[in-house]
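S.,

Sequence below, as promised.
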Amino acid sequence: MTVVNLNKARKARAREAAKSLAAENRVAFGRTKAEKAQAQADATRTARQLDGKRLEP
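The prediction came back faster than expected:
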């Protein structure tokens, strides 16, 4: 029978959750201003092209 310290398990689970949140934030916020501007320009260009190809009934 294995004895588990619940306090340590709770803290370990909280550390893992914090690590995953930090990884998501690095992806979301870890870009340079130039990369953000390029992504915005690409999204705008794609939206404009899609609107240009839309068929109006």
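The helical segments are 6-29, 33-52.

Coffee later?
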